[in-house]
Amino acid sequence: MTYATGLNYQCSKLFFGSPDYPTNDFLIPFVGFGLTEGGLAPQETVNPNADMLIDEAFFIHPNGTEYPVLFGGSAAATATASTGVVYGQVTLPDWLAAWQIFGIRTVYHGTVGNTYIGAYRCQRHRGEKLWAAGDLASVRALATANGPSTAAMDPDNWYNTVGNATNSQQLAYGPALVLAKGWDGRPVPLMLADSLAERQEIAASADARGNMGIWRRWFDQRDPTYGSMIPIVMGVPGSKSKQELATSATKRWDLIDTIKTTYNGGKDIWTVWADQSGRNDNNATASTWSNDKLQLVDRGKTRYGAGTRVVGITLMPTFGSGDAGRTVAGYTVATLWDVATGTIKTVNDTIKASSRYAAVIDMVPAFVSDSAPTKGPAAEMFPLGNVIGHPGNQDGVTTWDTIKLPATVPLGSRVMFEYQPGLWTSRTLIGRTDNGDGSADYKVSEVFATNVQDNATLLGHGMNSDFIHPALHGILYTVSRIPQSEKAKFAA
Prior knowledge:
Blueprint (H helix, E strand, L loop, with lengths): L8 E9 L6 E8 L20 E9 L5 E4 L7 E3 L5 E6 L10 E9 L10 E2 L7 E5 L2 H10 L25 E2 L6 E3 L7 E4 L20 H7 L12 E3 L16 H12 L9 E4 L10 H19 L5 E4 L6 E2 L9 E2 L10 H11 L5 E3 L2 H4 L15 E4 L13 E7 L7 E7 L2 E12 L4 E10 L8 E4 L11 H10 L11
Parallel strand pairs: 12-13, 12-14, 14-15, 15-18
Antiparallel strand pairs: 1-7, 1-9, 2-6, 2-11, 3-4, 3-5, 3-7, 8-10, 16-17, 19-24, 20-23, 21-22, 21-24, 22-23
């Protein structure tokens, strides 16, 4: 991202979920580096061309009170470009109760024309915002007023869209991690991750605590027996096991090790690892694929000790589709991705048998459909009722961006409906206004002039259009089918 004239002082307001136990004395690192996504991920080589200049940061209590975050006693800090980490701290006057939603507000600036890094797409339904101005006093005033995000930076522009700096939701800078004292002894997983862990969602479908994806949602369930666990996610979309903890991918690990030695009395900030990564290491030779995944575990144990407890997770398959993901029968599965007879089966069998893991969660049965256990969830599995009336003015020319649906349809859903007999189309729901009568008006991200028949049959997609990443209904389906009792495997 580039600082524009009049927009080079910025303020992000972001929200996070606290653990299921009281917390206090928060440690909040900010960094001067970013990670590649895609082929080279997670190499830490996406860097600003100047230091990240933090003017001030605040912890926002659930009651609205703001407490200053201090860096060695100072309100301001500088995270050196490409290498730097600064550690902010705040101690609340009273312990924060369990299971709260708190905020972090960060003010930062740079020289017009310089570049900066961002890691957050603001989630408007959770009250997150991004303001910008040409000087510190002005951006402070915007934050104090707590009005809409600044138009030029507005997260509503390209909302829920991933692209580059000019055709995607604008990115905000904020904390790399939020930690707090108060741990009650439950397992704390460090999750080796790729996009299939959490980032197959973007913003609109995030839950009330900001969780996205299968594993963050599953870990954070408040199960009465096994409790909620908030994982430390190590990875980004595109991450490969063979590139994690390898060349140009150790700065995040140095960060958490500094916390261990400097702030946490020599104790790691995790108790166990969850190895979800490996999907992007796919290779036609099963041994190459599985070795790439397992050697990351070896590197981890070399760094942290042979006794490091690691829980393995089997890998999800990928499909093609002849009907845009409407039916399970319409999915096609290549040999590489056939979990019954193909390459991925050999890799998953290796994962389940490997002595590197103290335990393994086989998540494949929870993800695939019962009718065809080599294929994932399809839209036919998630009937949502019917479109109410029809959107637009039905001339086939005038575009429309709002559709009336049953109010039970979750925000962020990717839905499919039979717009004319035998013909289907899809939309992503990115905004919602409840009508109080069992219906809601949903804003959609795909704006077309589609002529829709009255009361069209409505389905929820199980997969996104790439057929790699599950959509919201496929995510919730999978989470509900991974037993919470599997959390017992994370206990040391």
